[in-house]
Amino acid sequence: MTIAGRGSVRAGSPTALPTNTEILVQLDRIRLSAEFDVPDRARKFLAYIVGEAIAGRADRIKAYSIATEVFGRDSSFDAQTDPVVRIEAGRIRRALERYYFVAGSNDPIVIKIPKGGYAPAFEKRGGAPYQLSSGQAANVQSRSMSLEQTALWVSVATVGLLTCGLLANAFFGSAATTIESLTKPGGTRPNIPKLMVMPFEDLSQTPQSAMITRGLTDEVISNIAKFKEIVVVAGPAAPNPHSAEREYPAFALEGRVRLDGDKLRLGIRLVQHSDGSVVWANTYDEVLQPRKIIELQQNAAAAVASAIAQPYGIVFQANATHFMRSVPDDWQAYACTLAYYGYRGDLNPQTHASVQECLQHATTQFPDYATAWALLSLTYVDELRFRYRLNRSTTVSLSHAIEAAARAVELDPQNVRALQAEMLTLFFRGEVNAALTVGARAYAINPNDTELSGEYGFRLALSGQWRSGCDLVSKTVASNPGPVGYFEAALAVCCYIEHDYVAAERWARSADLHANPVYHVILLAILGKLGKMDLARAEREWLEINVPGFLENARNEVALRIHRPEDQKHFIEGLRQAGVPIPGK
To answer: For the stretch 291-324, what's the b/e string if a residue is b when 16 or more beta carbons lie within 10 angstroms of its beta carbon?
Structure first.
C-alpha cells in the first residue's frame, strides 16, 4: 500500500516542484528554528542530502556516502553492521514532523525524508510531495510508505514538551485549583477525547465499492475502539441541545473510497469539531485482489486506527499541543495520562514523581477510570525496576503496582494498558509464564498498540525468547513511537545477548536516557565487554552517586529482569569486566 500515487509533473504545472531557492530558504528556516531540536551532525546530515538532491545527485544519497562524507566514517563502513545513518535519519524524520507540527504549519515548503531511503522529498503546501531524480529536477516522485509504517507518530521531541515543564506547569504549577479539582470525588467517568467516525463516502457508486466502503467504516470503528485512551462514536449524530459541550465529540473522522479498475484509494481526514479545521489527512492506495478484500479492509483500518488513536498518535498530538496552553478543570484527569506518556519519553525520575502524584489524584476523583489505574500501576513498576525511590522498599512498590493493576483489569478486562500493567507486575513477581500469557492476550486484543507490543516483546526476550521478542521490539522502534529511547535500550540488551557488543553500544548511546539508572547499568556491562575501562569507570561513578548500593546487589537486580541463568551469567560477566565486584560464580 502506498500513500498517494506515483507519477511525475512538468515544471510550471499547478503542482510544480519548488525552486532550488525556495528549498534552500526553507532549509535555513528549519535549521535556524529552536523547534528543530537535533544535534549538529543531524543538521549537517539534512543539509547534505538536500544539497545533493537539488544538485541532481539524488541517486548518490546512500547510507555509505552519508556515513563517509557527513559522519567521517572510513571506507570500511558497512550499513548492515553500523546503524548510525538509519538512527540519525529516524531522528531527523521525527524532528521534521515536530517542526512542521509546532512551528512550521504555515511554511510554504515541506521537506521530508520518505522511509525506505535517505533522499529528501519536497512539496509546496497543497501539492503532492516530490523527490528529485538525478539530473531532472522537474520530474519528481511522490513518497511511498508501507501500511505498517503509515502512522504519523508524535515525535520524541514533541513528547518531550510534556516533560520539560510546559505541560507540567498546567497540571501542578501555581494553580491551586488543579489539585483541588482532582481530589474532589467527582462523576463516574472523566473527560477523555471523543472521536466520531462518519460513514465513509463511496465515490464510485458501484455494488463492489459500496460493499468495501461499508466494510472499511466498520473495521475502522472496531480498530479504534480497541484504544481506551479515546472514545469512538459511530456517526453521524447531531449534538443534543440539552447536553454539555463535553458530551459532543471533539473530532470527526471522515473517509472517501474510490475504485478504479483494480486500484482502491482511501482518503482519510481528521477534523476538529470546534472550528472545522483539518487536523490530519492521509491517502492510502491498494491493489484489489478479489479473495483478499476482507484482509485489505482489516489492514487499512489497522493503519488508520494506529495513526489516529494510539498513545502517541494524532489525537495525542493535538491534545498535547492544546493543553500546553492551559488545562480546564474537567480535563485534569485525562491530562495526567498525557503527562504519563510524556514522561515515558525520557524516563526521568523527577518527572516520574509528579506524574505519579497526578495519577493518584486522578484515581481518587474517578475511581472507575481503568486507564488511570493502569498507568498508576506502571509508575509503581518503574519505582521497582528503575529504582527511583531509594527510601521505599521494592516490596512496597510491587504491592502498590499489583493492587492498581488488579483494579484496572477488574474495571476493564479488555483494556490493553491494564493488561500491560498486569503483565509487568507478574513478571517482576517472578511469575514469568503467567506474565507472558497476559501479554499474549493483550497483544491479541490490539496488535496495533506499539506501546503494548514493544513491552510485550521485551518481556518475551528477557524470558529467553530472544529472537521473537527482539523482533517485536525492533518493529516497535521502526514504527517511531514516542518512547523510542526505552525500546532502543531494549535493543541494546538484545544485541548484547547476541554478543554483538559494538551494535549494543550504538543502540545504548542512541537511547539517550541519561537520568535512568538501568540505562547506565546496561551501558556499563556493554563497556565491560568492549574493554572501554575509562568510560566504564564514569558509568560506575554515576551509579555510585545517584543510586548508591545498587551495584552491591547487582546479581539480584539482574535476576529480577533476565530470566534464564545462562543469560544472567552472560550479563554479569560484562559488569565484572567493567570493574564491578560481584561475588559468586
So the answer is: eebeebbbbbbbbbbbbbbbbbbbbbbbbbebbb
Residue 155 grid coordinates: 515525535
Q: Please provide the CATH number assigned to the domain covering 388-577.
A: 1.25.40.10
Q: Would you give per-residue pLDDT tens digits along the chain (585 residues)? A: 333 322 322 223 334 567 777 888 888 788 878 788 887 788 889 988 998 888 788 888 888 889 888 888 888 888 877 788 888 888 898 889 888 887 888 888 899 998 878 999 888 876 544 444 443 333 333 323 332 332 222 333 344 444 444 344 434 443 322 334 444 444 567 888 889 999 999 999 998 889 999 999 999 999 999 998 888 888 764 444 444 444 556 889 999 999 888 888 899 999 988 788 888 888 888 888 877 788 888 888 888 888 888 887 888 877 766 665 566 666 888 888 888 988 887 788 888 999 999 999 999 999 999 999 999 999 999 999 988 876 667 788 999 999 999 999 999 999 999 999 999 999 999 999 999 999 999 999 999 898 999 999 999 999 999 999 999 998 888 776 565 788 999 999 999 999 999 999 999 988 878 888 999 999 999 999 999 999 999 999 999 999 888 899 899 999 999 999 999 999 999 999 999 999 876
pTM (global) more than 0.85: no
Tell me which of 3.40.50.1240, 3.90.380.10, 3.40.50.10070, 1.20.1250.10 is the CATH number of domain 187-320: 3.40.50.10070
Residue among 208, 329, 332, 308 at smallest CA distance from 261: 208
Helix, strand, or coil here: 262?
A: coil
Chain centroid, CA 212 distance in Å: 30
- Are the C-beta atoms of 78 and 64 separated by less than 8 Å? no
What nine digits make up the cell of 358? Answer: 497526578
All structural domains of the chain with their residue ranges: 20-143, 187-320, 388-577
- How far from the centroid of its chain's Cα atoms is residue 360's Cα? 25
Asked whether the beta carbons of 408 and 374 are under 8 A apart, the reply is yes
Do 187-320 and 388-577 show the same overall fold? no
